[in-house]
Amino acid sequence: MAEKSNFYKGLKLLGTQKEQQLNSKIQNLLNNRELIERVSDNAQMQVPRINSLQEASERMSIIMNYPTKKDVASLAKLVIQLEEKIDGLEELVSILVENRGGNVGGNSSIRNKGNANSSRSIKKKSRLASNEKEGSKKRISDFLNNSLLLSSQLPEFNSVRQENSNG
Amino acid sequence: MVKRKVPKNQSESKTKWQHLLNIPNQPLPEMGLTPKIAVWKKNKSTLWFYPSAQKKYEVPVFLIYSLINTPLILDLSPGNSLIESFVNEGFDVYLLDFGSPGFEDGDISIEDYIVDYIQKGVQRALRHSGASEITVMGFCLGGTIAAIYAAIADEPIKNLILSVTPVDFSASEFFDQWQEALKEGTADFDETIDIYQTIPASAVKYGIRLITSPVYISPYLSLLNQADDEKYVQNWRRFNAWANGHVPLSGAAAKQITKDLLIKNSLVNGSFKVRGKKAKLSKIDASVLVIASKYDRLVPQEMIYPVMEHLTCKDKTYNLLKSGHAAKQYSGVLPYYLKEWLPGRSSPIQ
Question: Which residues form a coiled coil (chain A) (predicted)?
Fold first, then answer.
């Protein structure tokens, strides 16, 4: 039994040695400046072709009425923007609640439980806390301004505004 | 009828082969079983919270894994999980999982990952935990971005742990001819990356394989050698699933890694900027533990050690382990290099 086990151990050792030798050879062979430059040139030659194919696909999508990968990506980016907006709101709410002495989903870390032994941490904490206090007002107004700015760019908003001004 | 006796050696050999050939028919063992809760999500990223069994330390641990692989390796299985070890020792753990970027994420750069994901994630973890300070631990490329983040952070980072983290990219010995061509601009893949927006997972996998081991048979020989050991096979399969589970890398991040880190070596020379803010390693004032592995072919210690020369903080420790890049075993308790270093710096609860 030990003999067999030794066989498999030996096989593993031999295989590992041969693998290392082969790997070094392959890596030395591939570590060639001309090779990487040729790969790069070939890749760059493909770029205009792929670009024109993608443009053709975009043009076809208008006629065929199908979404392209870029359309899906644009949609995904809008969702991400929306998610960021909600994230920002969530953060502002938690800051507002904390400023009023409340507590949201955990607790402000940065404020209450200081480590008395660490002056470095206190320095950072106070810097962060004051940054947050100063920043919170600015962030609220920036956020509202940005939201209004974004909303004003929406066609629905413009039409509602027009209707309001007309009415 | 004469019954022929099968020699013992032959039967053992047959069993090994039978086990080996039967492996693909068996379901993949479960991974990532340490209890966790999602506390924040952004785009494809998730901030996971692993509550400690019995909280013993005020300072939670925030884990940042590499951008090119999943963090499953940190929680492979019960009894072989770094996260489980932290949790058992009384640390609350947060893990930022970047997920798998898609075509629409091609413009997420390293800077974006740092400010929009890591910094926000740390703020969320601090708020969620109620802690006043945090330990940030980064692995591989995740360690590089953790170090950059620590250099510009306003958040109270008490400890920074960099595990097999490349810092000095000029020390990379592999494919020096390719590096030269990239540095001189005679090889350029920017336009190709722009078309695909991300580096596909398969390209990431074979790129890493090219650097480490283009011929990859020794893991299978190890499996054959212990194919009749059920526990070994299960662990091997989990590790193998992780080792083959690369994720795409966003194009902007790939370009920034190549241009800023590889070509300019900007983290070491102090010129790496995060949204206009210089990320100098000398600005890190946390306690720092640097972990390197002696047999690491992907990130040799020549790429790691220079961080010690550029850190100016008083409390810094370098630990060289006798292991490879990822194949570390955890046995439900913290490995000695963390157990000796971290608890005393994590505000034990009296």
Answer: 19-46, 72-99
Q: What is the DSSP string of B48-102?
A: EEE--SS--BSS-EEEE--SSB-GGGGEEETTEEHHHHHHHTT--EEEEE-----
Give residue-wise pLDDT tens across range A50-109: 999 999 999 999 999 999 999 999 999 999 999 999 999 998 998 888 888 765 555 444
B100/chain A closest Cα distance in angstroms: 14
Phi, psi angles (nearest 5°) of residue A76: -60, -40
Structural domains counted in chain A: 1
Measured between CA atoms, how close is B36 to chain A, in angstroms?
16
Boundaries of domain holding A133: 69-167
Which residues from chain A sit within 8 angstroms of residue B285, using beta carbons? Answer: 120
Q: In this predicted model, what pLDDT tens digit does every residue of B219-242 receive, in sequence order?
A: 999 999 999 899 999 999 999 999
Secondary structure element (H or E) that encloses residue A108, with its range: none
**Domain boundaries, position B277:** 32-345
Distance from CA of A23 to the nearest CA of B (A): 6
Taking an 8 Å cut-off on Cβ atoms, the answer to whether A23 and B8 are in contact is no
Alpha-carbon distance of A8 to A62, in angstroms, equals 63
Token pair for A115 = 């480590």
